[in-house]
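dumping this here so i dont lose it
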């Protein structure tokens, strides 16, 4: 009983349902979108902390000391910069973790349902863990890129992986988040890129912990 109470005191707290006001001069990103990004991440991290997520083999967690993410206006600006052109250049801002997803419009279509695609990107990133195996010792390996938010230096070697979405989101030492989207017109088809940038306390390396087990 005391052990359960201890776990409850260290798991990440859920995000309040009320929206948080932001002061970021990006007219494309609304406060509603910012809250969507932030609440999704913190709710997912809370479920992991409480042991309510699964991979292909087992229940994950519970986990301790998972930080509740806060929104960073500076990281949002970086995300906006990185998304320009809707490409996949990971050589800039390597000290931050990055997740990006690109959606393609039909011929001649230049408008997108942005909120719908943001939700789709977040779902795709997080749900990759359901099709993967997390090591029993909860340590990072290359199949867990976006879920566990490794160093972007490693990302250059991971772009061919089929699991390069979703695993940036869970690492317990992430502290701040900033996301943005960019619509890239094209003569034949348009693209929408959703991109999130993560600040962490340490650079993550192979075999680093994704989260800590409260029983150890």
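and the seq i came up w/
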């Amino acid at each position: 009983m005391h052990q359960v109470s201890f776990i409850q005191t260290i798991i990440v707290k859920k995000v309040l349902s009320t929206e948080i006001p932001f002061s970021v001069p990006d007219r494309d990103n609304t406060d509603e979108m910012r809250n969507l990004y932030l609440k999704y991440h913190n709710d997912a991290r809370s479920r992991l902390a409480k042991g309510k997520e699964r991979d292909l083999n087992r229940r994950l967690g519970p986990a301790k000391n998972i930080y509740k993410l806060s929104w960073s206006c500076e990281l949002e600006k970086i995300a906006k910069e990185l998304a320009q052109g809707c490409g996949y250049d990971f050589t800039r801002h390597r000290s931050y973790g990055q997740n990006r997803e690109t959606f393609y419009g039909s011929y001649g279509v230049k408008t997108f349902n942005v909120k719908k695609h943001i939700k789709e990107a977040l779902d795709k990133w997080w749900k990759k863990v359901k099709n993967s195996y997390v090591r029993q010792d909860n340590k990072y390996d290359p199949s867990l890129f976006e879920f566990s938010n490794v160093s972007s230096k490693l990302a250059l070697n991971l772009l061919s992986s089929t699991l390069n979405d979703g695993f940036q989101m869970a690492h317990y030492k992430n502290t701040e988040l900033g996301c943005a989207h960019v619509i890239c017109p094209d003569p034949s088809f348009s693209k929408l890129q959703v991109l999130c940038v993560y600040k962490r306390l340490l650079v993550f390396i192979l075999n680093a912990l994704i989260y800590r087990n409260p029983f150890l």
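The first strand starts at residue 53 and ends at 54.
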